[in-house]
Amino acid sequence: MKRRRRISVGLVAVVAALSAALATVPSPAQAGKHHQAEPQGIFKLDHLIFIVQENRSFDHYFGTFPGANGFHLGLNGRPDVCIPNPYLGHCSTPYHTDEPIQLGGRHNDIHSDLDIAGGKMNGFISSLPDVAGRCWKRPLQPMCAHFVGPQLQPDVMSYMDQREIPNYWRLAKHFVLSDRMFAPTDSWTLPSHLYLVSGWSARCTDPSDPMSCVSDVELKGAQYQYRYGEPPLYAWTDITDLLDEQHVSWRYYVDDDTCMNPPCTYPNTNQSGPVKNPLPGFTDVHQNGSLGNIQTHSQYLAAAAAGTLPSVSWIVPGHHNSEHPKGGGAIKTGMAFVTRMVNAAMTSPNWNSTAIFVTWDDWGGFYDHVQPAFVDEPGGYGIRVPMIAIGPYAKTGYIDSQILSFDAFLKLIEDRFLGSARLDPATMSRPDSRLLVRENVSILGDLANEFDFTQPPRPPYVLDPTPFGP
């Protein structure tokens, strides 16, 4: 009995010692928690937000931004460029404007070629249509006083600065301004937004066959343009198909007044039209049951406030919040809208893992002096547009001169969330007939270079959406 008791006591002591030792060894879950490497580089970004406004060239908004590739200023501090003006019989120079609304110019494939003028970048006035009564042809009409410059220049030659668009300039000075962001194609809003979400603009003979599509950057004719309430037309594959396959969350946010399923019982005069919201026109979005991911601005604001932003967000304005020349609202209205969207992300619990990109879909006919880089025919690139990168890891007061386009947005999404899988017919589970994988073009820059992921997260930089008052 005594021997057994000693053995029992010994066993107890051994068990106690082992238990104490094991208590100091972390479980696999604890080990992972304490020893798992911190995310590095772009993997610190869990939320990518792309805000796309309309129809402004880089020089029109940032041509005099300090340090950027803008106008060359003469001794008098004014741009010394002067381009042919066949309507006045002499050349015209850029001029500063504080007008809230402009006329702009035509912006499609033909007029892009005319504006670029073989690389001389001096056709912006010559490309304006020779139509009686237009302000560039008869600038002394009383109604034209707001749409011409001091030497009767058409407003395609106008530019603004921090006096008219203070929030855009403040964000550009505080974060990153790209001065070589080119529109994805030399055309108008719809093709640009198609490139935004799919890297291509095409027309398809069979909406159910992604191999039936051919490149088309004009999409002339209703038969090639999706309208709300109609069956889908765009048969090729967009980025949401790859995101859905990998269970990566995404949302495309449109104005609250948008009616995607007519007839509608409420006014929709401020809606985001299908040219800015093309995803309902993609066959794969219907096949994947993802139409519910197209949501409203109010839902974006709620998700930001709750800290439940998706991995990828696109935000497009409604008619009155668009900066489209001759649009429904003034520039200050569009800037207020963008500021509210940016502020919502900045004040979100998601801020420390967010990157925001604010850009414009095409040049709107406004003058720009930089010849677009060439990537493919007929796709583009198009004429330069502004782009501001914002986030806790964005560099401070940095001007990025890499060649960029909307393809860089797709590339960042793919590199961060899809293991660098591309919209490539050779690798997609749903191949289409595109001939070029634009994300792989050698001249395309990398948006990761606009961030310093070694710095501590920068605090929010919240701005007053209405610096001029209501």
List keywords for this structure.
24% helix; alpha/beta; disordered N terminus; eight-stranded mixed sheet; two-stranded parallel ribbon; 470 residues; 12 strands; 10% strand; Alkaline Phosphatase, subunit A
Task: Report on this structure.
With 470 residues, this protein is α/β, with parallel strands linked by helices. It has a domain at 41-58 and 161-450: Alkaline Phosphatase, subunit A (3-Layer(aba) Sandwich), CATH 3.40.720. The chain has 11 helices and 12 strands. The strands form 3 sheets. An 8-stranded mixed sheet has the order 8-7-9-1-10-11-4-12, sandwiched between helices. Strand 5 and strand 6 form a beta hairpin. The longest helix has 22 residues, at 2-23.
Q: How does the SSE layout of this entry go?
A:
Layout: H1 2-23, H2 28-35, E1 47-53, H3 58-62, E2 95-96, H4 109-116, E3 158-159, H5 166-174, E4 176-178, H6 189-198, E5 202-204, E6 213-215, H7 239-245, E7 250-254, H8 283-287, E8 294-296, H9 297-306, E9 312-315, H10 331-346, E10 354-360, E11 387-390, E12 398-400, H11 406-417
Parallel strand pairs: 1-9, 1-10, 2-3, 4-12, 7-8, 7-9
Antiparallel strand pairs: 4-11, 5-6, 10-11
Helix pairs in contact: 6-11
